[in-house]
Amino acid sequence: MAAAPALALAGVGVDRADVPVVRDVTLDVAPGAVTVVLGANGAGKTTLMDGIAGLARPTTGSIRLDGAPIERLPPFKRARAGLGYVEQARTAFRTLTVEQNLLVARSGSGDLGTVYRLFPELERRRHLHAGHLSGGEQQMAVLGRALVSDPKVVLIDEMSLGLAPKVVHRLMGTVAELAAMGIAVLLIEQFANLALEIGSRAYVLRKGRVVHSGPCAELRGAEDRLHELYFGGRLADAAARLAREAPGREASRGASAEPPEAGSRTP
Amino acid sequence: MVNSVIAGLTSGGGYALLGLCVVLTYRLVAVVNFAMTAVGAFGAFVMVSLTDAGLDVWSSLVLGAASAALLSAALGAALVRWFAGHRERTKAAVTVALYVALTAVGLRLFGGTTTGAHRFPDPFGAPVFTVGGVVVPRSVLVSLAFAALITLGVGLLLTRTGLGLRLQALSERPATAEVVGIPAPRLAVGVWAGVGAVTMLVIVLVAPRLGGDFSTLSGLISTALAVAMVGAFRSLPLTLAGGLVLGCLEGASSAVESIQKYQGVVPFLVILVLLWWRSRGEVWDTAHSR
């Protein structure tokens, strides 16, 4: 029997400035696994994450964390209930040291040692202000900050943005390690194939709605299928043709498969 | 002249504290609070009304500080609830509107310059010692000690305590602070309440010297903003120094008969000089081309 989902969304809708961006999304995030959300730019992925974390208010549906409804809780109570959120862009507290970044988020049982084991460079720089770290190290600090709150579920939104491929691979490895530790991970990632490699289940959003859900294995390496899911029929054909005619150019950032030096791009 | 400058330090300590309150509100909750001294004056007049009604000074002081804290917390809660996602200038405009409203209500309740001057208790008015003919009133020492204590205390709170770390996180990234489990709205309202209470205490301290009418005391916001500008709305020690210098300047100007009546212009001159000084290196097309 499959384990009960750590995070379950049913019919969730989220608005931005009174405009519906996410509509009727139903998805489950299993404990100890990476669940991937894919979609083109503007599909509503970040709005969905903000809705789950409480930064945007869901207008419809229910969000359950370990079976308990959280959709009406303020963000800090969702965090205390066991929801970690690695926001898009680097959101380390730049004026605090690395250690202080971790301490402000630590819950009773949260352990700085686990973070330092995963990211030894953070321990070496623990007294340095986060603003002085490299982009990759800042992202490690943010991931570590989500970890010390002892979360049941971690939401990760485009953590590879602006990072070197080597660092992206390293962080993806850590995400897989988090899942191995029993944490449920909901991952949004611009490099679809990297996410699909470590993910177990994938959802694809188009115009705020789920247009596909299934095992990640179904979508691994299936760029044409991804284009079709991202853009729909005719647009997908155009995007695929564009990518074939100009292989060095991305048809869309949202449909890119891997970081530049790490492998071939989406056709 | 030296006596006047020394006496000006009493107000200077108060100005420094008011400036510190402006800086703290700005640093921690990102709002330039124009209503701050009106809220403090409101609490001070609640206190003096209670003493006039026969309540003892200390109980009145506590109740007055509590009323200022409550009023300030209500303003903070309103800003957190309805204006959290708005720009700084919108939030500042809300506090300007509240300043106007509170001043109108305060004048109505407690009277204006000619009708509403109250006698504030002045427990620290007596001279404490005389050095070479210069009389140092106790209020100077109390005011300076209070200002130094608050500067040091706030500095230690922000850098050495868990609450301070959370406050710093809140001031830097309010939304991120919330998603890492920091109760941002509650902390912000706490900051507003604390600032309201401290402002009221400072106003009670400076009221015997400045005159006990509502409009004068609520108008201290212009001085507080000038002092905060000295510290660039960021540095606590510079703000402290700015307040003391401003107090001394005011004291000195009160000693010279020909410029005495222009004493109220001193904060404006300080703001003007600082604006000029800070913008002296700017190039027109980069600084003003928006």
From TrEMBL, chain A:
<dbReference type="Pfam" id="PF00005">
    <property type="entry name" value="ABC_tran"/>
</dbReference>
<dbReference type="InterPro" id="IPR003593">
    <property type="entry name" value="AAA+_ATPase"/>
</dbReference>
<dbReference type="InterPro" id="IPR003439">
    <property type="entry name" value="ABC_transporter-like_ATP-bd"/>
</dbReference>
<keyword id="KW-0547">Nucleotide-binding</keyword>
<dbReference type="InterPro" id="IPR027417">
    <property type="entry name" value="P-loop_NTPase"/>
</dbReference>
<dbReference type="InterPro" id="IPR017871">
    <property type="entry name" value="ABC_transporter-like_CS"/>
</dbReference>
<keyword id="KW-0813">Transport</keyword>
<keyword id="KW-0029">Amino-acid transport</keyword>
<feature type="domain" description="ABC transporter">
    <location>
        <begin position="7"/>
        <end position="232"/>
    </location>
</feature>
<dbReference type="GO" id="GO:0005524">
    <property type="term" value="F:ATP binding"/>
</dbReference>
<feature type="region of interest" description="Disordered">
    <location>
        <begin position="242"/>
        <end position="267"/>
    </location>
</feature>
<comment type="similarity">
    <text>Belongs to the ABC transporter superfamily.</text>
</comment>
<feature type="compositionally biased region" description="Basic and acidic residues">
    <location>
        <begin position="242"/>
        <end position="252"/>
    </location>
</feature>
<dbReference type="InterPro" id="IPR052156">
    <property type="entry name" value="BCAA_Transport_ATP-bd_LivF"/>
</dbReference>
<keyword id="KW-0067">ATP-binding</keyword>
<protein>
    <submittedName>
        <fullName>ABC transporter ATP-binding protein</fullName>
    </submittedName>
</protein>
From TrEMBL, chain B:
<feature type="transmembrane region" description="Helical">
    <location>
        <begin position="131"/>
        <end position="158"/>
    </location>
</feature>
<keyword id="KW-0813">Transport</keyword>
<protein>
    <submittedName>
        <fullName>Branched-chain amino acid ABC transporter permease</fullName>
    </submittedName>
</protein>
<feature type="transmembrane region" description="Helical">
    <location>
        <begin position="92"/>
        <end position="111"/>
    </location>
</feature>
<keyword id="KW-1133">Transmembrane helix</keyword>
<feature type="transmembrane region" description="Helical">
    <location>
        <begin position="31"/>
        <end position="51"/>
    </location>
</feature>
<comment type="similarity">
    <text>Belongs to the binding-protein-dependent transport system permease family. LivHM subfamily.</text>
</comment>
<keyword id="KW-1003">Cell membrane</keyword>
<feature type="transmembrane region" description="Helical">
    <location>
        <begin position="219"/>
        <end position="249"/>
    </location>
</feature>
<feature type="transmembrane region" description="Helical">
    <location>
        <begin position="187"/>
        <end position="207"/>
    </location>
</feature>
<dbReference type="InterPro" id="IPR052157">
    <property type="entry name" value="BCAA_transport_permease"/>
</dbReference>
<dbReference type="Pfam" id="PF02653">
    <property type="entry name" value="BPD_transp_2"/>
</dbReference>
<keyword id="KW-0812">Transmembrane</keyword>
<feature type="transmembrane region" description="Helical">
    <location>
        <begin position="261"/>
        <end position="277"/>
    </location>
</feature>
<feature type="transmembrane region" description="Helical">
    <location>
        <begin position="57"/>
        <end position="80"/>
    </location>
</feature>
<keyword id="KW-0029">Amino-acid transport</keyword>
<dbReference type="InterPro" id="IPR001851">
    <property type="entry name" value="ABC_transp_permease"/>
</dbReference>
<feature type="transmembrane region" description="Helical">
    <location>
        <begin position="6"/>
        <end position="24"/>
    </location>
</feature>
<keyword id="KW-0472">Membrane</keyword>
